[in-house]
Design brief:
Elements: H1 2-29, E1 34-37, E2 47-48, E3 59-62, E4 73-76, E5 80-90, E6 97-105, E7 109-115, E8 120-126, E9 136-137, E10 149-154, H2 156-164, E11 169-178, E12 186-194, E13 204-211, E14 215-216, E15 222-223, E16 226-233
């Protein structure tokens, strides 16, 4: 029984090694992301989120602080919630989006949202306010360092279905920098992309082994020879 347990652990280690190696290769060599918005053209039309946009002009397209040396990012520096209409995007099962964001100074809420014609789903990236988890997805809030570009991976298909019990057609993006009292912080948003096709796909791994006969060495110690065979299909 003890030998079987050790064999099982060894098989798991070998399997994990193959999966990790293949996943690293896929991440570094494939670029199939679909850009949803990156502000590179230097033009964007924003309007106010109803009931929340107290400083509607406190935003700009910024060329000095951008993700991956892109031409522009979106900067919010007041108590402002902005909506951007986009070409309709049908969300498929398993879709994951990635948002690049830079928290320069923390506000009460700094986050991102997606909308269809009926509902809106909010993600909180940073902030000092304790949010209602019935209204916000707070899994990232405070998880990343300030003053650096961080990539937020959002499983929008699973999250939207869990909230609203259907898959949407996304028509708008929401950018949030909320501060109801005191001086607001600053947040930058840049490349927003559907990265579903770039997610690491684990390879098919088959591992077999053969156990030989148990034999004794001259010192009386029992030994057994084990031969491993593996096949990896990517």
């Amino acid at each position: 029984m003890k030998n079987s347990k050790h064999l099982f652990i060894l098989i798991l280690i070998i399997y994990s090694f193959f999966c990790f190696s293949e996943s690293k290769s896929i991440i570094s060599n494939s670029y199939r992301e679909e850009i949803i918005e990156n502000f590179d053209d230097g033009e964007v039309e924003l309007y106010s989120f109803p009931g929340e946009d107290n400083n509607p002009s406190s935003w700009s397209l910024d060329a000095s602080n951008t993700y991956n040396e892109s031409p522009f990012s979106l900067r919010l520096y007041g108590n402002t919630w902005k909506i951007e209409d986009i070409d309709s995007i049908i969300v498929d099962p398993g879709d994951v989006w990635q948002v690049a964001a830079y928290i320069q100074d923390v506000s009460e809420i700094q986050g991102f949202g997606i909308m269809d014609s009926v509902n809106v789903l909010f993600y909180s990236f940073a902030g000092t306010q304790e949010l209602d988890i019935e209204e916000w997805i707070t899994v990232y809030q405070g998880a990343f360092e300030e003053d650096t570009w961080n990539l937020f991976l959002l499983p929008i298909a699973d999250d939207w279905f869990a909230w609203f019990d259907y898959l949407p057609v996304i028509t708008s993006l929401v950018f949030v920098n909320d501060q109801d009292s005191g001086s607001p912080g600053e947040v930058y948003f840049d490349e927003i992309a559907n990265i579903t096709e770039d997610l690491p796909v684990p390879p098919l791994v088959e591992i077999n082994y053969e156990i030989g006969e148990i034999y004794r060495k001259r010192n009386g110690q029992r030994n057994v020879d084990v031969q491993f065979y593996s096949e990896v299909i990517d």
